[in-house]
Write a structure and sequence with these properties.
Layout lengths: L5 E7 L3 H11 L7 E8 L5 H8 L4 E5 L4 H15 L4 E5 L3 E3 L3 H8 L5 E10 L6 E3 L25 E3 L6 E5 H7 L11 H11 L3 E12 L11 H18 L4 H22 L3 H15 L12
Parallel strand pairs: 1-2, 1-4, 2-3, 6-10
Antiparallel strand pairs: 4-9, 5-10, 6-7, 6-9, 8-10
């Protein structure tokens, strides 16, 4: 019986070296039926030429403008589905995988009620430290409550409420039922939104800890706590709540969101990041105004 077709979709924006390194990792995968697709978000560093020269067998989609994380990956997923993909593996381009990762993820996806699976993701700079092992989500606020499982130990496949969009293997049937990423999010919270929609459709989300991956973390937005990252975190958290919170729970959300905003702003100011603090406040305000503009730094 033939192996299901897995399309790996990467999005690149001016980070040719990272993408090439990720593709080198993917070339070592033991799974026998993989196709690789890079979506270039209008890079200006010659990324597409570098990728073509290094990996002529890799498909590329060349966007005429930067469509962000969600728009870029959606463009790739549409190509993958049209080409007959049984699974789409959405993967950040600043990552490296162990050779058996895709095989382990496909094996874990076999039950019909499993919608998405993810590897255990570690920090590239600290290879034994967990960056994300999925998460549990508060039923009241829909926010992640266990810090991406960073303080936990996982020895077996575990059901989770949330999986990071950094690396998720998704069944074709699930994408056809629930749709792709919501492009209003651009970057950040798009994975919370998709995880919630997949669970609402009746599917389980699984962490596969034996499948291991390393992540350079927030490279496309300038790093953790950069102005761009803080802008989208502030804006998209509000967009996420507007989409999924209803009725009396808004009272709780408003109180919680105000406290969270004050805490984050003070933290950024203490760290002497006034531009990031300003971007975070502007993003939060734009979320309440339903403004879909972007900050000065584009993403993905």
């Amino acid at each position: 019986m033939p192996h299901p077709l897995v399309y790996v979709v990467l999005a690149n924006w001016n980070r040719a070296a990272d993408t090439v390194e990720c593709l080198e990792s993917l070339m070592q995968q033991s799974y026998p039926n993989v196709r690789l697709l890079v979506v270039d978000n209008a890079s200006t560093d010659g990324s597409s030429q570098v990728i073509e020269q290094c990996f002529p067998q890799v498909e590329q989609v060349l966007n005429q403008k930067n469509l962000g994380f969600t728009g870029g990956y959606n463009a790739g997923m549409r190509v993958a589905l049209k080409a007959g993909a049984d699974f789409v593996f959405v993967l950040n381009n600043d990552t490296l995988l162990e050779p058996n990762a895709i095989q382990l993820l496909v094996d874990a996806s076999s039950p019909e009620d499993v919608g998405m699976v993810s590897p255990m993701i570690f920090y590239s700079a600290d290879p034994d430290k967990i960056w994300s092992a999925g998460g549990t989500v508060s039923k009241l606020t829909l926010e992640i409550t266990d810090n991406h499982g960073r303080e936990k130990t996982f020895s077996k496949i575990t059901e989770r409420d949330f999986l990071s969009g950094c690396a998720i293997l998704i069944k074709r049937s699930v994408l056809e039922k629930v749709g792709l990423f919501d492009e209003d999010f651009v970057s950040y919270y798009e994975d919370s939104d998709l995880s919630l929609r997949v669970r609402q459709a009746g599917y389980r989300l699984l962490l596969v800890p034996q499948a291991r991956m390393w992540h350079k973390v927030s490279m496309s937005t300038g790093g953790s706590d950069s102005p761009s990252e803080r802008y989208f975190m502030g804006r998209n958290s509000v967009l996420f709540f507007r989409k999924h919170i209803h009725g009396w729970r808004w009272v709780v959300i408003i109180i919680w969101r105000v406290l969270s905003t004050v805490k984050t702003t003070l933290r950024l100011l203490i760290k002497k990041r006034p531009k990031s603090a300003k971007a975070y406040l502007r993003g939060t305000w734009d979320g309440f105004r339903l403004r879909y503009g972007s900050p000065e730094n584009s993403v993905a």
